[in-house]
User: Which sequence fits this backbone?
């Protein structure tokens, strides 16, 4: 598979993840916060509104990570995936994701302690999944950096 096809497939995956994330924020989060009552979502209640805004706030960095991934596909499309700037992008995305996961988990623990939410098990599973993804991203950033150094050295070799 050449770089252009790989770049296109990655972009399709990014768009799919973005659509799923947007649908989750628009439908699943309000329903889950409203305790799965589809008929009477408590839009006017303060606890629902605070949780809804909180979930949007912790979701926005994830959409930012998709923008970073899209930028990496731009260099992938040119056949220059192994660049130090791409390694820095992935490393930056890893840090953003870890901070976002911590905010997500702390916020939901507070909501459970206040009696506003009862889905802590699911929140912990989402946080663990995020941590596993951030671990893979960290490893990827290290390998991208090493590959960029090797690529740079081989470019100067005749």
Assistant:
């Amino acid at each position: 598979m050449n770089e252009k096809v790989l770049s296109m497939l990655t972009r399709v995956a990014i768009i799919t993840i973005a659509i799923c994330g947007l649908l989750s924020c628009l439908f699943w989060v309000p329903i889950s916060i409203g305790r799965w009552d589809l008929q009477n979502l408590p839009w006017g209640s303060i606890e629902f509104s605070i949780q809804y805004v909180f979930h949007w706030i912790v979701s926005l960095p994830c959409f930012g990570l998709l923008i970073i991934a899209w930028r990496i596909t731009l260099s992938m499309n040119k056949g220059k995936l192994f660049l130090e700037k791409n390694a820095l992008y992935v490393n930056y995305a890893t840090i953003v994701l870890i901070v976002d996961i911590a905010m997500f988990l702390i916020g939901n623990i507070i909501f459970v302690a206040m009696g506003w939410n009862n889905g802590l098990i699911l929140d912990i599973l989402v946080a663990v999944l995020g941590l596993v993804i951030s671990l893979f991203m960290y490893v990827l950033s290290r390998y991208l950096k090493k590959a960029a150094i090797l690529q740079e050295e081989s470019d100067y070799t005749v």
